[in-house]
Amino acid sequence: MPATPAPPAPPCLMTVTGSTLVLAAPRRPARPPRRSPEGPYRRLFTLPGTRAFTAGNLIARLPMGMFGISAVMMIAGQRGSYALAGAVTATGLAATAFVAPLTARLVDRHGQARIAVPATLIAVLGSLSLVVCVALDAPAWTLFASYAATATTPNIGGMSRARWTLLLRGSPGAHHTAMSFEQAADEFCYMAGPVLAAFLCTAVFPEAGTLTGALLLLTGMLVFTAQRGTEPPPSGAPAARQPSPLRPLLPLLALFLCLGAVFGSMEVTSIAHLDARGLGAASGPVLALQAAGSCAAGLLYGTLRPRGLRGCLLAMAAAMTLPWAAASAGSLPLLAGALLLAGMATAPTMVTAMSEVHALAPEGRLNESMTLAVTAILTGIAAGSATAGAAVDHLGTTTPYALPATAALLAAASLATHTYPVRLSGTSQVP
């Protein structure tokens, strides 16, 4: 029987070193490095144009947390009147509630770049006019008129969410992640903005906060609107020919009003509570914990399955009782931890509620619909702040901590006769 031939030897490398013949074993092909699976947020920013418009969006959004406190510190510092400063900023808030939905309607109809850039220029000129009028000791009415002009500032968060909605149409899991990122960005800017404004107004000069905010707003808006490839197409139709967003959104607007009352009452009560105990300097860092908790929870929520709106509201109402309990115990560390946990319940509620706005907004009116929601929140903040201030004067600084939990329960009760399934945000984790 013939012998089976031996398998051929693997090729070897031969080299001669001096008088020695060296045989080298064949090299094994290198294994490709293992690639760690991409996270949901990394996948978002692989889409063309998303990094550029997000950079502009964040630059332009940061001043949203700067303008109010900058105006108060500048006017109070130069004119010596917090009453005047508060009245000027309140007038600006009232003007925003009226003008912002109209600006958003024009954005939907004519396009983001065509409307947002001139509207931003008007707002920036209003801020510059305020600085000049304060510096020149102009009559008080000029301060009101100047700050009211800033109401034309476009809803940059709404325009960014509209771009994500266009890019991720048909991908509900990715859309949920994008909305969670946007909510976390909101919380970060409202946490960092006041800190930056206070530093600029005190360490540089009183007008520095307003001037820096105006520069950031204009720069960010120009970067954002330059990304035309991700801009939603304008509807082009007159608003009269389109269904109004008010009717489908009315129950949700009542909910957003209550959510604003949660935020406004919690802020005023916490400031008063800490100030009454000689800890007024800790107000900023302690309140920043609430925003930090919401920011972190928003990013985490984007990687999870979205929850029902009623469940989020009930969880939020329960979390809002924690600061009340901590204030009753009289412990600053407990209050700081309670505010952190209360903040963590905020972002999931806001993300889920905003997803319902997306689902219910009429075709071609998305930015206007989101701006109406923001306007309702701002109105609720004003009402909550005023209610908490009156409660502090009459009931002390502990009992008013019941207001945020009550407002959250009212928000849940507003859904008693309405059911909003989470449609756009989807029900599955990001694939």
TrEMBL record:
What InterPro entries does this protein map onto? MFS, MFS_trans_sf
Q: Which Pfam families match?
A: MFS_1 (PF07690)
Q: Which UniProt keywords apply?
A: Membrane, Transmembrane, Transmembrane helix
SUPFAM superfamilies found in the cross-reference section: MFS general substrate transporter
Transmembrane segment boundaries:
58-76, 82-103, 115-138, 196-225, 246-266, 278-301, 332-351, 372-392
Positions the record marks as coiled coil are none
> Its domain of life?
Bacteria
Protein transport is among the record's keywords: no
Identify this protein by name.
MFS transporter
Naturally occurring in which organism (per UniProt): Streptomyces goshikiensis
